[in-house]
Amino acid sequence: MIDMFYEIFDPDNLFLKYAFIMGGLASISFGIIGTFVTTKKIGYLAGAISHSVFGGIGLALFLQVNAGLTWFDPMLGAVLAAIIAAVTIGLVSLHAKEREDSIIGTLWAVGMASGILLIDKTPGYFNLSSYLFGDILLISGKDLLYVGCLDALVLGISILFFNRFFSVCFDNEFTYLRGINTTFFYLLLLILTALTIVLLVRVVGIVLVIALLTIPPAIASFYAKRLWQMMLYSILLCTLFTWTGLGISYSYSLSSGPAIIVLSGATYLVLLVIHKLFKH
Amino acid sequence: MIMHNNHEIILENISFAYKQRNILEDVNLLIKKNEFASIVGPNGGGKTTLLKLILGLIKPDRGVIRIFGRSPDQARHKIGYMPQYAHLDMDFPATVMDVVLMGRLAKKTLWFSKKDRAEALNALDKVGMTAFVNTGFNELSGGQKQRILIARALCSNPDVLLLDEPTANVDQQTEKNLFSILQKLNSQMIILLVSHDLGFVSKYVKSVICVNRQVVIHPTTLMDGTLIKDIYHGDLKMVRHDHRCSEEGHTHD
Hints:
The complex is a heterodimer of chains A (280) and B (253). Chain A is mostly helical and 280 residues long. Chain A has 12 helices and no strands. Chain A has a domain at 15-207: ABC transporter involved in vitamin B12 uptake, BtuC (Orthogonal Bundle), CATH 1.10.3470.10. Chain B has one domain (7-232): Rossmann fold (3-Layer(aba) Sandwich), CATH 3.40.50.
């Protein structure tokens, strides 16, 4: 494990350095958006968005190969699918009432399934597991730039509208009665969630992204007294988990995404037990 | 429209149905200045619907609602609202100040000013909770939470205070304290509260608004057994009231 810290600074191991920078940068968006998702209790919606992303990736690959649209790369498909899914799921959750669960569950599965069908009909070999479970060691300089931009966007909007988001998460009805357009801020929050999921799918993959989005805030909520504190602790925890998880995966030749998730999940469960035992 | 000189809240021929079921039918209600009324009635009888109509959260199928001569949407900034605290997330990381400041949310400003904080402190003072300003909201007891939510409703300086079940899940002493706070506030504003508890509330409130598809407002002194039977359609144990209501008298509409 110690060796790894030397290897990070080895110019031949650029991929490892990129992976670590990615882990740190990703944690900023993860911590902020994860805190909103956890306090607003929309983890289920975030799960549906992340699985719909796979439909977009499938569509992009299909069109790239079969229709010759070379500019339509999987990342673009994923972003489009995520935003469409966020708005659709947001409107469904606002208006569908008792049908909400069934509709969102359907979107979740259909998004995923249609992605796989589209890839079936696309000639060539695609490494599906890197989309499903992430492959942080495949990060390029361009990915770092994307995530840097996402961080700037998430930070900027969250600071600007902090009180709005706070209120929408805590008491939506009261916020509406104060004359605030709660639907707008709810959808904005879902779109930011969607963008965060897309860019960070590279780190832990579609299936595991929800865990990294919700576990650090869940731990942070044991110790945080205010919403911004919860975000700060989540960012630090998320950085800790991704870096340690990367170290473990590199040292023991394990997949990086699952290593990160098992580490964070185990930490959460242990702290949950300690918290319950010593709370009073 | 009829002239209503000293009626601040007017509901005229209001009907509201949900899924083909009439919740409220041809309801008329006049609320005077300085009214302190408890809204009672069976579950599903339309208490919450009545509250939501006044708040403008839902629109009536028929009829007109006027609050200080305006529609509920336009009069919204004059209304302070306290929801049931049980509907809120008890693990939400927020201090008392964070929660009360929500009452100062406004369309035009993104951040809270010094004035907003001063107003929030002032509102906390009215409910006797200034000592808790930096305490976590989730560390408070049920009764304390209710008072914080009342402070939140107060800090926009409303002319009407609407409270949804402020006495749910609190013990008798807490309830008593809550009502003495409300009684003081009543000199400056109309207070309407939804309650399950017929017996206790009527000691403090000036009128009782009975809701069960129809709406009837009674001065508290007129509450008796047949009335309760009418509302609940059944024999119930009689609640004994000691008649400590205001002496001003109440007109029947």
